[in-house]
């Protein structure tokens, strides 16, 4: 709600410290970007 179109850097900042960094967040970031994109079109 605060930022409906976050950049990848903003997403990384939001989730930093909340999830294990061992995977690099790649799949999680892609999922968040996809959801944000879909929310924009609805």
From TrEMBL:
Pfam families in alphabetical order: Fer2_2
Annotated InterPro entries: 2Fe-2S-bd, 2Fe-2S-bd_dom_sf
Gene3D superfamilies in the cross-refs? [2Fe-2S]-binding domain
One GO MF term, please?
Answer: metal ion binding
**Record-annotated [2Fe-2S]-binding domain positions:** 2-33
Please report the name of this protein according to its UniProt entry: [2Fe-2S]-binding domain-containing protein
């Amino acid at each position: 709600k605060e930022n409906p179109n976050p950049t990848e850097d903003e997403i990384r900042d939001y989730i930093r410290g909340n999830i294990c960094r061992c995977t690099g967040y790649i799949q999680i970031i892609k999922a968040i970007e996809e959801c944000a994109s879909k929310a924009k079109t609805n």
